[in-house]
Each structure stands twice: as C-alpha cells, then as structure tokens.
Amino acid sequence: MKNLPISDKFSELDIAIEAATRAGDAILEIYKEEFDSKIKSDNSPITKADIKSNEIIKKILSQTQYEILSEEDDDNQSRLGKEMIWIVDPLDGTSDFIDRTGEFTVMIALVKNKKPILGVINWPTEKTLFIAQKGKGAFRYSNREWQKIQVSKVADLTKCKAVGSRHHLSDKEKLFIKELGINYFTSVGSSLKVGKISSGEADVYITTTDKMKEWDSAASYCIINEAGGKMTDILGNDLTYNNKEVHHLNGIIVTNGLLHNKIIEEFKKL
Hints:
Helices cover 28% and strands 27% of the residues. The chain is α+β, with helices and mostly antiparallel strands. It has two domains: 11-149, Fructose-1,6-Bisphosphatase, Chain A, domain 1, CATH 3.30.540; 157-269, D-Maltodextrin-Binding Protein, domain 2 (3-Layer(aba) Sandwich), CATH 3.40.190.80. The strands form three sheets. It has a seven-stranded mixed beta sheet, with helices on both faces. The protein has a five-stranded mixed beta sheet with strand order 11-10-12-14-13, with helices on one face. A hairpin with a 5-residue loop joins strand 1 and strand 2. Helix 1 (11-31) packs antiparallel against helix 2 (48-61) and helix 5 (192-198) packs parallel to helix 6 (218-226). The longest helix is centred in the first third of the chain and has 21 residues, at 11-31.
C-alpha cells in the first residue's frame, strides 16, 4: 500500500489501518468457506468472522493502551470519563456477509473528548479503504491508489441520490423519502452508504431507527465530516461518542451538507 497522503499523521492512524486491513483479510478467508450464524440477545446475527475480526483488532489496538468499545464485547463502562477511546465494529453488515452481497465492512474510530478524530473503514471484498483524520480531509484507497474524496454539490432534493439499508428500511422511511421528492433510491449494505456519500456517489442517507449504536457510526462520522458532509441525528442534533447510552435514540441523517437542513425541517413538520 502506498503511503497515505496526510502530513502530521496521528501514529494511531497507521495502527487503525493495520488492524482494519488484517481483520478484513481474516474475514475474507471465512467468507470463502461454509460458515454458520447465530442470533445474539439483541436479535442481531453473529458469525465466527465477527469474533475473529474482533480478536485481531483488539490485539493490534491494545498497543495504544486506550480502552476499546466494541460491538462484540461486554461493555464494562470503564471507558467512561476517559479522554481517548477506540470504537470498533469488527464486521459491519453481518447480514450482508451472511447473504454474500459483498457489502460488509470493518469500522474503527478513535474518539477524543466525545468526538471521532480518525476513522477507518475497510471494504474487504473490493480491497478498498475509506479513511479520515480530523482537519486533514478524507481519502479512499482503491486500485492501489489514494484519492482525496469529497461530497457532491447537489442542492435539489428532486435531483439527489438517496441510499438506505437493504435489511432495515422501514415503510415510514420509504414514505418520508418519497414525500421529500427524492426519485432515486438504492439499497446499500453497511457503512458503505456513508462511503458513497463521502465520495460524491450519493447524497442522502436517512434512518429513523433507535437501534443504531455508536460503533455503527463513529468511523463514518469522521469520514463524512472530513469529506465536507454532515452527520447528525434526525432532529439536527450533533452526535457525541463514549456515552453511557450507546444507542443513537433519534436516528441518523447523513448528507452532503447542502441538503441537510431542508430534510430536517421537513421531518420536523411530521
């Protein structure tokens, strides 16, 4: 991999990239095999790929001494009050992994004072990385090249491209998207929805669910902001991290920034 074009790079960024890359390689090995899945207590699926990825990531990140909040570990909340923590989703899009759509990712974020200061998303099947460091921009690594990425300039809702979940899109969300006058919608797995918006390939992602948790968005938050876009809850409130309550209780909206307030105003009318 060529050197990332960021000056004054945090040393933790290299560590996060190594962890996400090695975890992704292990996930791909399991993806090629037959594997079973189980249902966790929160009704979400888990496979041995989730567990293996988590083990690899924790081992690599542990050299930094920061606490780790991971989807696949019990949260003993010893992280609370710490200035810096890692937030990890070892396999985002487990349902897509099981369905073999190829649209699953590894997500790692470093949070300082409740805000993500770096984010790494690895898309293993496409050998693609999305990364960002606060104040340094967002980048995508694909076809063995790093490219700086930025959001689109679309400001008209009728001309924007919306992306949403393949497995969790509600009828209420479908109706709202239609009422906004958005004509183009496509289903995309995992954090790749935010990857597409950050790269200017889509413009809007809306979810009203209260089931998303901090590890589902922390890496994406840094990447979308550094690409010039915006992520808040559905009421327009900024998101914070390393909270006692890890759920995003008011859903999430991700846009190129230009469409953000229009959508929130329409939602509030409901």
